[in-house]
Amino acid sequence: MGSYSFGMVGIPWIIVTEIFPINVKGSARTLCNLLNWFASCLVSYTFNFLFEWSLAGTFFIYSSICGLGVLFIAKLVPETKGRTLEEIQSSLTDILQ
Question: Where would I find the Major facilitator superfamily (MFS) profile domain in this sequence (predicted)?
Answer without folding.
Answer: 1-81
